[in-house]
Specification:
single chain, 121 residues, mainly alpha, 4 helices, 2 strands, flat
């Protein structure tokens, strides 16, 4: 079983390190790999959740955290976590994304529980 897990991790890591192309941007050359695109997507989701929160708060006229905020938090954290595990093998990034992911899962659980209770009454 351990050998199969190791082979799977090696396969995922190899996928994350597939080179797509080099891009020159502001005088820097970026080596774009599949893993980096996954990391960028995670970053955009994790940062974009604040734009969703701002829009929802503007509409309601008070601070709110819509369900989409929590889904974007979890999705962004999972993508960034996979990037730091398979693309970078970076323990700081792994820990940095595990903590908010668990908080987001818990808050989503509380929100869904609250909504279910409100529907029953």
């Amino acid at each position: 079983m351990v050998e199969n897990s190791s082979h799977l991790c090696d396969s995922i890591t190899a996928f994350y390190n597939i080179e797509i192309r080099d891009i020159a941007f502001f005088g820097f050359v970026w080596n774009i790999k599949v893993g980096k695109l996954i990391g960028f997507l995670g970053t955009f989701l994790f940062a974009g959740r604040w734009i969703v929160q701002l829009g929802a708060s503007k509409i309601s006229g008070k601070p709110v955290l819509p369900l989409l905020f929590w889904y974007m938090s979890i999705s962004g954290s999972l993508l960034l976590l996979s990037y730091f595990i398979f693309g970078q093998n970076d323990s700081v990034g792994i820990i940095n994304n595990l903590f908010p992911m668990f908080i987001a899962f818990y808050n989503l659980y509380l929100e869904l529980k609250h909504r279910a209770e409100a529907r029953r009454h």
